[in-house]
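Before we proceed, please read the two lines closing this message. Let me know whether the structure tokens fit the sequence:

…
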Amino acid sequence: MEKQKPSFLEKISNFVVDRLAGPMAKFGGIPAVAAVKDGLVAIVPIVIIGSLFLLIAMLGLPGTFSENALIPALSSFSPKLLVFFNITMNFLSLYAAVAIGMNYAKHFNIDSINAALLSVAAFFLININDLSNGMEVTNFAAGGLFAAIISSLISIRIYR
């Protein structure tokens, strides 16, 4: 029997399994990387819930999908549903700071509540621009995720 030539997809699959899987598994085993991965996975339900609130709210708002609301009965509830969306999505970095700090602390056998509080405090300190006007919460949305990751990792590392 003649051996069949591997397809392009099989070649790519073999390359990934043979060459990339080992180094990526080692990279994923680094405590800081694992903590970021686990922390971001922990906030996925918040993203899903926020997205559902947004979708339901948009069904009740006119001008979103058509001239009139697709479900007119939701029109009075849409502004309230958007509040839930804003609470979930506009504080995403804050939730990430808590989750990443707790997961990073688990790698070092540190109390996770103290780690979460420390991560949030470090995240607040990074985001203070001007104390006279209070704290801006614009960086608490997805735009502040990088700051949340860095502040959580550094603060827990110093605490350790």
